Fold each of these.
Amino acid sequence: MADFKRLHCFLCTGSGCVSAGVWQVREALEAELEKQGLSDEVEIINTGCAGLCERGPRIGIWPDEIYYQNVEVKQIPELVTEHFLKGRPYEPARLTDASSGEIVRSEQDFQFLSKQRRIVLENCGVVNPEAIEEYIARDGYMALGTVLSEWSPQQVIDCIKGSGLRGRGGAGFPTGMKWQLLHDAQSDVKYVVCNADEGDPGAFMDRSVLEGDPHRVMEAMIIQGYATGASKGFIYCRAEYALAITRLDIAINQARAYGFLGDNLFGTDFSFDLEVRVGAGAFVCGEETALMQSVEGKRGQPMPRPPFPTQKGLWGKPTSINNVETYATIPWIVRNGAEAYAAIGTERSKGTKVFALAGQVRNTGLIEVPMGITLREIVEQVGGGVMNDRPFKAAQIGGPSGGCIPAEHLDTPLDYDSLTSLGAILGSGGLIVMDDTSCMVDVARFFMEFCVDESCGKCAPCRAGTRQIYETLADICEGRADMEDLDRLEKLGLLMKDMSLCALGQTAPNPVLSTMRHFRSEYEAHILNHKCPAKVCRKLLSFEIDREICTGCGVCARNCPVDTIFKEDGERKYYIVQDACTRCGTCFDVCNFNAVVKE
């Protein structure tokens, strides 16, 4: 007889919860269950990320449908006593709604999930990513079995074409068309590649999918291999994603043992195998030609196109490259039909999109929403609104390759065409919300500094252009620029877009050009008035001590690196010598009483 458990405890073991101490929580939970004689009644299941990353460690208990957030080791004994013994929720750790502060009674009541449509993430937070049996129980490898036993390769490609799926890596190229190109290529050897070299600041979509549902990506790659005539696949994952790599290795070994990888799959003459290749963390290797160079063991540098990878790719053979999210959509489309997927989203942007929602918003984490949802719906409903009730200022979408969307465009649909008209791109899915305390010039400088560091240096427009733009932005932030610098920034940005070899250089100016377009007055205030409206750029600020608030503790004076903070004889209150102040802001950072004000 099967060993049925009374309760199942779903424990998020994605990277976010791991960093918050989930393994210590699990150890304490196991010990407490053993101590209270409940080990035979409760099953603890390790899952991937369920999405609400800042609430970890997170536990869901079924069939009770009770969720706990930010669980600490010290809470475990009382939680086990209250919930598992007495049958009532442990209130101090209950999942709460970020906007109202009210306890979330069920998933259906949770505002964070109200606008979501989970296709790519349907198994994340539900199955154990290290147990192939759990993936199979959720219809895993059903799509593969269907296409191998009932469909021709062209029927598979026609299904993907009919779904309207476009690549989720940033460019939005039609996936079915890319598969068709590889199918039509004449070669005895072909390759398929999963691009998991996710490098955008604040982006963690691909990492979470690989950590939480690796078999899903693998199944899609096998399906593509069958549809296009490829017998070998590579998953290119950055070395920083150690947990994802570990779970991929486990999944590949399990798939081989179950007959989903190897020779004569499902009794057919089709054979396919997968291999993980680990990248060294170079952002430029997210560009497909640089990625292929790295897979071959060479330095990751972009190559001119044409020829395109589907013509001449890995080791000179036709190759198709898709990103993690694109692949993770395929099994759902095959199981449910192209029409079902095409019915979601907009006319030209079908399906759903996964975003890494971060920044000054109450609910941060991984979300999946229908294409065409407005930015307002994401910020105010899924995200629970801007933190501390401050006004929304802008959202940076698409990372270093993307652009800023200002408050006046909050109702813009998030799809490929609408964002392009605003000077932004959908990108891979990073979405950073900013309030009125963010300086848009400083934001542009941050992303450009990232591009300077990550440029491979092969082509002059990117190598020199990123550096020149960054230094000009630094001059603006530090009060050394003039109005002619704005014209130079725009001309240089457009030049880079036209002349850079790869997408890194072509898109690097996007954050600069979009912030200049929507926040030009902020640039002008830095240059003409030597003022930062958001009070972020410290070289343009002055610091003073409010003597009414100052307690005379002297922390500011002791930490001042240039000794410009004093008190008069017989006085306990401090003051700053303005002529000698370097405006480093140390006094503001160390004051515990908010006595140092910046102007």
Amino acid sequence: TGPGFSAGVGAPGPDGGPGRNRGMKPGERLAILALALGVFGARVHRLDFQPLWFDEGYTLFFATLPWASASAGGAEPHPPLYFLLFKLWTAGAGFDPFSARYLSVLFSILPIPLAWALGRRLGGGPAGGLLAALAVAFNPFLWSHAREARMYSLLPTLALGFGLGLVGAWQKPEAGRYRRLLAITLLAGLYTHYFFGLFALGPALGLTLFRPALRPAVVLPSLLYLPWVAWAAPDLLRGAGSRGEGYEPLGLLEYAAGYLRAVGAGEGCGPGCAQGPLGVVLLLVGTAAGLTRPRPPAVLLWAGVVGALSLGFLLQLKFPFGGYVRLQSPTIPLLLTLTLAALAGAVGRPFLRTLLPAVFAAGLMLTGLPTTVREYRENLRPLEDYRPIARWLAAAAWPDDLVLCDFPWQVGYLLAYLPEPRPKLLYPPNPFAGDPPFRRKTEVWYPAYQALGGTGGGGLEGLLRSRLVLAENRWFGNTRLLRFAPLPAQTRWGRNEGTDSTPRLVSWALPAAPVDAGRTAVVGLEWNLGAVPADGLKAFVHLAAADEAIVGQADLPLDTQAGGRLRVGLPIPAGTPAGEYRVWAGLYRAETGERLQPGPGATPDRRVPLGTVTVSRPE
């Protein structure tokens, strides 16, 4: 067995070895089945309540890529297994948030029976197995990530499967099923997330050194992983060295405390979270007890947990990153299972053998409960919620419209939230190559995300403003939704003469052809402000029915750089009855709302009649 491993866990005995793991009663299996079904029902409840977040949007976007791109490094800086499975899933289930997250819920149920089986095999007996399953099932971190469209529910499943394969193969090297489980979960884990390799490194080395019969189960998956490493390593290192997200390296204590707090009380429990310290203390005590008398092969799994945390800490010193606890998700179910199995097997008396780990597991579950409940009751990302944007687009955008996105996750959000038929979603944004939108006479929508520095009118927004006519500019949380219309054929309706000392509308132009309800009427205006400064002035355009009721309105600041020439996009609401509508224009001060006299021909309420626009019903 190698030096230092003379006593195997597989030997039965009075010290809580596997002798107690034999003869699993039907009641245990029934309890685990009931637990798994109950957790499944709770996790699918309100599964689409929380808005999608950035990484989920990336997942949905990558599911639209070709199979070859998704399998050859086209999907994020992560290995491709999860993205290939997700792409296959969406081919049948679709892109709505509930369906997209449902796959993760399915993955998240498997750790429950795996933790139960592993806890028993590690010497915890029936009590250790059941309490390990409970701790894994109700852990707030694992619960949260079980309800999002990412790989962080698949990783705990693979980690526990790897641990069970390792322990089973160590105890029974002749059992082929454990060797196969070990090899398959190792290979799948490596092709799911890079941090799985950090976790598996220590156990793999231990098996290679002390269990020669198990070397093929470790070496073969490693060899099959090398082609991916050769393919992806250059891009991964280049991307890691150029991250511009502004994270700072963490000190050792801050890193460890953040990890333990997130494991014990949930990732949503920040440094000021009231129950966070309790989770840290519980895990410190439990880990210390679990490490007091570790036995093989538990030593190898502890080496995997400690090794992954240590290597992750060193990596973030060189390449700081956020969400580092999320990357350590393979270690979390193993940490819980190892600790509870050790606590259950450390005491000889049956009563205390159950009481101590039960108190520990109950403390952890109660510590994480507020974080879990909060996810069902409160929108945790209201400023990043794209559901209001999708509702607006569903009501106002047409299927032949174009939505230009700066980020792939925006495409993913709108794929999930917009019903069919939806406008065309375009990323990367290159609207002026090939068949540009202004040539196709379609309207363009641009969600300008502002929380990462914003567009500030430059970049793509500047191009759109220079080529098309701005029709709407609405805020939804951290995003401005802009609507642009192409410049149609127009008819010049008139020209006013007047003095140069007072503002006047010099000329104007209206659409020459009827405008469908739900589209944009582009009105051209040319103002001469005379001696009045343009600062703080806005032009308005009204579309009014025969009874003077205002059907549509647009306001635009005067641009002195354009010499007072404006193109105003006037959205005509969907459902507007067909007919002739009068168009009015005027000026007002933005701060006070006071209207200015707009020159000859103005009405007493200081508006200038421009003519009429014909509104037609859309087909």
